[in-house]
Fold this protein.
Amino acid sequence: SEYLGTLGSDCAGMVEHAGSQVAHIAQRDACFGQAKNCLASHVCCDARLQVRKPSAVSFEAATTLISTWCTVHVAFVRSRLVGSRRLLVHATAGGVGLAASEYAAWLRLRLFGTAGAPRKHHLLRCCGVRSTASSRQAASCGHSLASQLGGRRLDGVLNSLSADFISTSFALLAPAGRFEEIGKRSVWSFARAAAAVPSAYSVLDMALDVPADPDWYSAEVLQVLARRLEAVVVHGLPLRSFGIEREARDAFRFLSGGANLGKVVITIPVRLGAPSSLAVAFAPLCE
C-alpha cells in the first residue's frame, strides 16, 4: 500500500480548482488527461495535460483512451499510411492494439493483427480484423502472415513485442515501409534497423515525449482526441472497472494475469464536498 500514491498517469474527473492562467478548463468542468500519481481522490497537475471531456463519454471510457489512442495517433501521423496500405499491429487485443484497429478502419487500411488466446482472436474478428496471427511464437507468426500476404509486403508495422517478433516483422516489411516501435524491451538501434531493411524506423515513447513538449501534446494530440470523441469518430475501449476501496488488489491481479481485453479502470468514490453524481473526482488543476 505504500506505493499506491506513486501509481497512475491517465485519469478523468472534475476540476475543483484551476490556476488563474488556465483558460481552456474551469472549475466543475469534467475533464480527462494525464497527471502524475493520479491513483487518488485528488491530484494537482499541469493543466496543459487535461482537456474538457465530451458529455456523452463516461469518465471510465475517457480514461481508456488517453495513453492508448494518443500513442496510436502519433504513430499513425508519423507513418502517413492511408487507403489500402497493409499495416501490422502487434498485440492487437490490448489497449493500444484495439485503438489502432479502430484508427486503421477509419483510414481504410488493410489491418493484420496478432494475439495470443483464442478468445482474443475472436474479439479481433468481431472488431473487423480478419487477418490474425500468433503473438506467442514468432516463427508461427511469420509463416501465417507471409501466407496471408500472398507474396506481398507490409507497408507499416506498429510493434510492441520483443525478441524474434522484431526481426520477423522487419522481414515482412517493404523496403519503403514504416516501422513504428512502441515497445520497451529489445528495442533495436537505428543502425541495426537500417541494416535490416531500408525503411523509416521510429521509436515512440510518450512517457518521454509528453514531458518534453506538453504544448505539442495538448494541441496536436489530446485536443484532437477530444474533438474526435465529440464527433463520435473515436469510441471508448472495452474495459473492466474496479472500485479502489474494496477491489484494488483484484484489479492488479486481474491485470497481471493477462485476462483483460482492453483496459482496466479503477474508480474512486466521491468524497464530501464533491458533486454526488460523479463516479470519480480529480483536482485541483494548477498553473
